[in-house]
From TrEMBL:
Isomerase keyword on record: no
Domain of life: Bacteria
The protein's name: Quinoprotein dehydrogenase-associated SoxYZ-like carrier
Signal peptide range: 1-18
Taxonomic placement: Bacteria, Pseudomonadati, Pseudomonadota, Alphaproteobacteria, Rhodobacterales
Record key words, sorted: Signal
Entry-linked SUPFAM superfamilies: E set domains
């Protein structure tokens, strides 16, 4: 567990270093914008309302860290769609956020299949939209081999770990979920046969009954996904529900204030 937490911290710290990889002109996005996102034009970009950090060149295309942030006085965001233009399934995930996550500081790891803009389109409480993004140099993330063999995958699937800590006066939660998130583009390293797509498609994280965030995801969220976020604690337990495309459901509850806990 210690190694996992150490690697997680290192990976999720990486986006803060990337500041020079602005969005690039993208013919793919020109098609996606209307056909997939139902937008007539690009939403405005305003880094104080929403910013997206990602590495200019990914160390590992299968676990590219993405960090979404807002300035302290930014208007609340209700929903956000994460898009990786050049991925086989460009919509990586759709999120809903509760008030306890505002202003937003939220991190996730994704797969990037080829050099691509990674963009977030957020909807504010008044219905207006804003966009942020970075251009990421990475390739092969969606077909990269899984990090564990199939036996280990089955033995640990659905396990969750939760850590809560105070950093600079803010409560930071880190949720880790064991799941291969098979994309359908990978091969079993023993049989060399394609592994069918099998991934987490629904995630609901609550503090008591109040929503912290929910996610509807596709194949682009990384293996063993990690979510790190600032939130306002209210003394209630952290309740998590995970569903995957094979119909598996896992639930877990972590007591308030619990730190560095391994729940299996």
């Amino acid at each position: 567990m210690r190694l996992w937490l150490t690697l997680t911290a290192a990976l999720l710290a990486a986006p803060a270093m990337a500041q020079d990889n602005a969005l690039q002109p993208s013919p793919t996005w020109e098609d996606l914008r209307g056909a997939v996102m139902d937008l007539d034009s690009d939403p405005p970009q305003d880094a104080t309302v929403l910013d997206l950090d990602a590495p200019t060149r990914a160390h590992d295309a299968a676990i590219v860290p993405i960090r979404l942030t807002q300035a302290a006085d930014a208007p609340a965001i209700d929903a956000l769609t994460l898009v990786i233009d050049e991925n086989p399934a460009p919509v990586a995930a759709e999120y809903a956020f509760g008030p306890a996550l505002m202003p937003l500081d939220f991190e996730v790891r994704v797969r990037v299949d080829s050099y691509s803009d990674v963009r977030a389109i957020a909807t504010q409480a008044d219905g207006t939209q804003v966009m942020a993004g970075r251009f990421v140099k990475a390739a092969g993330g969606c077909s990269a081999p899984a990090g564990k063999d199939m036996a280990a995958t089955k033995a640990t699937m659905g396990q969750m770990r939760w850590r809560s800590e105070v950093q600079d006066g803010a409560e930071i939660g880190t949720l880790m979920i064991r799941h291969p998130n098979f994309s359908g583009l990978q091969r079993d390293q023993v049989t060399l046969l394609n592994i069918p797509a099998h991934f987490i498609d629904r995630l609901d994280v609550r503090q008591g009954d109040a929503l912290l965030f929910s996610m509807a995801a596709g194949i682009s969220v990384s293996e063993d996904p990690v979510f790190r976020f600032r939130y306002q604690p209210d003394g209630q337990p952290i309740n998590i529900r995970v569903e995957d495309t094979d119909g598996n459901v896992w639930t877990e509850s972590f007591p308030p204030g619990e730190r560095t806990v391994n729940k299996s």
